[in-house]
Design a protein that fits this description.
The structure holds 2 protein chains of 2 kinds.
Chain A (H helix, E strand, L loop, with lengths): L1 H9 L3 E4 L2 E4 H10 L3 E5 L1 H6 L5 H5 L5 E5 L5 E5 L8 E4 L2 E2 L20 E6 L3 H4 L6 E6 L9 E9 L4 E12 L2 E12 L8 E4 L2 E4 L10 E13 L3 E15 L27 E17 L2 E17 L15 E20 L2 E17 L8 E17 L2 E16 L2 E2 L4 E3 L2 E3 L2 E3 L2 E18 L2 E12 L3 H5 L1 E4 L4 E4 L7 E14 L2 E25 L2 E25 L2 E14 L16 E11 L3 E11 L15 E14 L2 E10 L24 E9 L1
Parallel strand pairs in A: 6-9, 30-33
Antiparallel strand pairs in A: 1-2, 3-8, 4-5, 6-7, 8-9, 10-11, 10-39, 11-12, 12-15, 13-14, 15-16, 16-17, 17-18, 18-19, 19-20, 20-21, 21-22, 22-27, 23-26, 24-25, 27-28, 28-31, 29-30, 31-32, 32-33, 33-34, 34-35, 35-36, 36-37, 37-38, 38-39
Chain B lengths: L1 H17 L13 E3 L11 E4 L3 E9 L4 E10 L28 E6 L6 E9 L7 E11 L4 E11 L1
Parallel strand pairs in B: 2-8
Antiparallel strand pairs in B: 1-3, 3-6, 4-5, 4-7, 7-8
Classes of the chains: A mainly beta, B mainly beta.
């Protein structure tokens, strides 16, 4: 036994962690740096697993899910927590869009990303509010090492007839460097394996199995300029991401209705209702190294503008509005973060300050989110102490103070109340202050082929304006929602562990966690009706969640690899109106088995067959309905072809080969009886020079 | 080596301890809208005159406790369809709704603690309501918030 342990400890083998090839020691070092469950994803993985959206690409990682919201977009979910319960950051700056919305995607260009890092578990220490479920860190700030380097990608998808082109260019001249990036995507209505859907008792037939009016387009661009010296580094990156896509025409708006618009005349056009989003971001990052001390400053400005347009139709007491602008959100976010790092001997210390200001305004005839301003300031300190080469301890503490000012809103039309008619107040003027102390402590231990991590932490989330102040109809889900001005900051305690083993042909990881919320903010359904719609209100309840992810890889023959992975999640409300029930949209168990053949013949190549199995979900909160389990068969293959100083690459994907009809329990499209996309082939051609 | 197991075992036990009993009573069954044993009104393809009343009557049942119900009437001048209608009623020619198209939307509470309830209410049709095809929708919840939806096609004539 001892001999075997020694053998594994010494050999610096190259291992493959879901196709991410990194040398054993580099991966070990990455894993030793954090006591949390962390997954590192490089550009190769992103390319090989290219899917419709960034999140769909990352979905192969245990514990990570993509909540699909139409063909072009999806939302990230880590261990069953999404929306404002996880953080997406780009180059270290929290991405701030309208992440609370059910059908709002990520406004980030997946082709500009160099690498991604997924932290599972609480990360409030570094990220402040919202980092409860985990963090998806995206990086697009790699410094080019050569005078001129670039790549071009051409890609297509069969299901929604998507065509896309992405190009990158970058170079370094002395200490100065630049990067340029552009992406264009255009897609038509996507196909689902069904001829009709039923929603809210309405019977809607589909032409050629296409979900009418789900076409869209996207264009992104970025420019980065920087200086990389020996002690001093600074860069400025400006990105703009624009997308415009249709909403499925029959299940959006004030009521299910038939329109005079001839949606079926073209499958590439975008008719009403549709949304467009533009996200502009400027990020400046600077660092100064003074021996053992490193100073860092991150400054960022983001502007997110979203408009949703619908046919103007009166509803209830609301007369026909003028114009199609149903909702507009204009959100500006300014972020500053200063970090001081100090490494000496066995200690790696870090202290920081972060501040954020948000300004959100709304327009349009449909009301769901009040206008607001919010401020957040946090300070933190942490230390990583290396007790021995294979044993590190870490601990940290953070304090946050947040303020929210919600603006009042009254209907723009009068509602008769008795003999009078009044402009009903949907949101009242409100000032709230929140304080939170969070902490985290962990241990990393490596012994031979084993790696053990354990982490305990507290994280929090400041209630968002919608939770505090909403009072109106949610047009996407046909329900009446009312906020609660008394909500406290949501708190979460979590215990994580990660047990890893890697030796010779076998490697496995098991990552269990237990998570307790003393006051989970929850949109609770009630049996009541308001204006003919079921009434939901925000409350807080004790919630216990636990689960685990496991992954097993076996290199059973040279070039051949078999992989089995799975995840399981349990959630239970322990108090309140829905005590004993789970949480809505609870992630069902899932499992994946894959066989992969890799080879090197004038460049690397691979082919893989994969079966994805998802369990039935009976754990529901009425009026939610159970969702059947399903399985899909998928195939992928790719090859690099070196051509002198350039590399040509091909990646092919076939998803849902058997064209199965299934529903994703975590997708809001399930509520409107829309199954997940049918069979899809995608192809990407790339040239790196 | 052994040290790893010392750490592993309590952790797995901690996880198992959490998955204890879940004996909380949960009502996952939907309520039911039916016409069993009563003369239900309105039924598919029924015709009503302007100015008269629709004598609504349906039987609501649930395995635990009934909640609330809502009645909503909207025009079907554009010929949309609802699922669950077995019969195709003859429709008037399609048209655009005028300002007098009839809209009715009312919420009702069912007395607490009932598993069975015969809902009755008279719904007067305005004497100036636009004539044509209408849909009559009934939505019913149980105390656990499950919802049942029921729709019939009716006609309003002179």
């Amino acid at each position: 036994m001892a001999a075997a342990v020694m053998m594994c400890a010494v050999s610096d083998t190259t291992v493959t962690l879901h196709d991410i090839t990194v040398s054993g020691n580099a991966r070990r070092n990455f894993q030793l740096r954090t006591s949390q469950s962390a997954v590192l994803v490089d550009r190769d993985y992103l390319q090989q697993h290219f899917s419709g959206s960034l999140m769909q690409t990352l979905e192969g990682i245990p514990g990570v899910k993509a909540m699909t919201i139409g063909s072009g977009q999806s939302k990230p979910v880590i261990r069953g927590l999404g929306f404002n319960r996880m953080v997406v950051s780009e180059d270290g700056v929290k991405h701030e869009g309208q992440q609370w919305g059910d059908d709002h995607g990520l406004e980030i260009d997946q082709f500009s990303i160099d690498r991604a890092e997924i932290l599972k578990g609480p990360a409030a220490l570094l990220y402040g509010s919202d980092a409860i479920g985990g963090v998806l860190n995206l990086y697009a700030n790699q410094v080019p090492m050569e005078p001129l380097k670039g790549s071009v990608r051409l890609f297509g998808r069969s299901n929604n007839e998507q065509l896309g082109l992405s190009a990158k260019l970058g170079g370094r001249h002395g200490h100065f460097f630049y990067r340029l990036h552009g992406t264009f995507i255009d897609y038509s209505d996507y196909r689902v394996p069904t001829d009709s859907i039923q929603y809210y008792s309405y019977w809607i037939r589909l032409k050629n199995q296409r979900l009418r009016n789900t076409a869209g387009r996207e264009r992104d661009g970025s420019l980065m300029l920087g200086y990389a010296g020996y002690r001093f580094h600074t860069d400025l990156r400006i990105t703009d991401s624009y997308s415009r896509s249709g909403f499925f025409a029959n299940a959006h708006g004030l009521e299910v209705r038939l329109s005079d618009i001839d949606y079926d005349s073209s499958r590439r056009d975008i008719d009403l209702p549709y949304q467009w989003v533009n996200h502009l971001k400027a990020i400046s990052h600077s660092s100064l190294s003074l021996g053992e001390v490193v100073l860092e400053a991150n400054l960022a400005y983001q502007h997110n503008r979203r408009e949703e347009h619908s046919e103007p139709v009166g509803h209830g007491y609301m007369p026909d509005p003028s114009g199609t602008l149903e909702r507009r959100f204009d959100k500006s976010t300014a972020t500053a973060r200063f970090v001081l790092r100090y490494e000496t001997g066995r200690h790696a210390m870090q202290a920081g300050f972060s501040g954020e200001f948000q300004h959100n305004r709304r327009r349009g005839w449909g009301f769901i989110l009040p206008a607001f301003e919010s401020y957040d300031a946090g300070i933190y300190a942490m230390d990583r102490y290396t007790l021995r080469e294979n044993l590190t301890l870490n601990a940290g503490l953070r304090y946050d103070h947040a303020r929210t000012h919600i603006r009042s809103y009254r209907d723009w039309y009068a509602t008769p109340v008795g003999a009078d008619s009044v402009y009903v107040q949907r949101s009242s003027d409100m000032h709230r202050r929140f304080n939170s102390v969070t902490w985290s402590a962990g241990i990393n231990y490596a012994q031979g082929p084993w790696m053990l991590k354990a982490n305990a932490g507290k994280s929090f989330r400041v209630p968002i304006a919608k939770e505090l102040g909403v009072d109106g109809i949610n047009y996407h889900i046909f329900r009446y929602e009312r906020g609660n001005a008394e909500l406290d900051p949501e708190q979460s305690y979590q215990l994580d562990a990660s047990i890893g083993y890697s030796c010779g042909r076998v490697e496995f990881t098991v990552e269990p966690f237990v998570n307790y919320f003393p006051n989970y903010i929850y949109l609770s359904p009630t049996p009541r009706y308001v204006e003919g719609l079921q009434y939901y209100h925000y409350t807080q309840a004790r919630v216990l969640r636990y689960g685990a992810e496991a992954e097993f890889t076996w290199h059973f023959l040279p070039h051949w690899q078999a992989r089995l992975q799975g995840d399981y999640l349990y959630a239970r409300q322990r108090s309140g109106e829905k005590k004993g029930y789970t949480l809505p949209f609870s992630t069902p168990w899932s499992s994946e088995a894959e066989v992969r053949y890799s080879f090197v013949f004038h460049g690397e190549g691979y082919a893989a067959l994969n079966a994805h199995v998802v369990g039935r979900q009976d754990e529901i909160v009425p009026p939610e309905m159970p969702t059947d389990g399903y399985w899909t068969l998928n195939f992928s293959a790719g090859k690099h072809f070196p051509l002198r100083s350039t590399t040509f690459s091909v990646a092919f994907h076939a998803d849902n080969l058997l064209n199965r009809r299934y529903y994703d329990h975590t997708s809001y499209y399930r509520l409107i009886d829309v199954p997940e996309p049918g069979r899809n082939f995608s192809l990407m051609l790339g040239l790196d020079f | 080596m052994k040290r790893i197991y010392y750490l592993l075992v309590p952790l797995l036990c901690a996880l198992c301890a959490c998955s204890g009993s879940d004996a909380d009573s949960k009502d996952m069954e939907k309520p039911v809208i039916s016409s069993d044993g009563i003369v239900a009104n309105p039924i598919e393809c029924q015709v009503y005159h302007r100015g008269e009343s629709i004598p609504f009557q349906y039987l609501f049942t649930d395995n635990v406790e009934l909640g609330y119900y809502n009645i909503e009437i909207h025009n079907n001048f554009n010929h949309h369809t609802h699922s669950g209608s077995a019969i195709e009623c003859p429709l008037e020619p399609a048209k655009k709704a005028g300002s007098k198209a009839w809209v009715y939307n009312q919420d009702f509470k069912i007395p607490a603690g009932l598993r069975e309830y015969v809902a009755t209410t008279d719904i007067p049709i305005p004497s100036d309501a636009e004539t044509g095809d209408y849909h009559f929708m009934v939505r019913l919840t149980d105390a656990a918030s499950s919802q049942a939806v029921f729709a019939v096609a009716i006609k309003v004539v002179e």
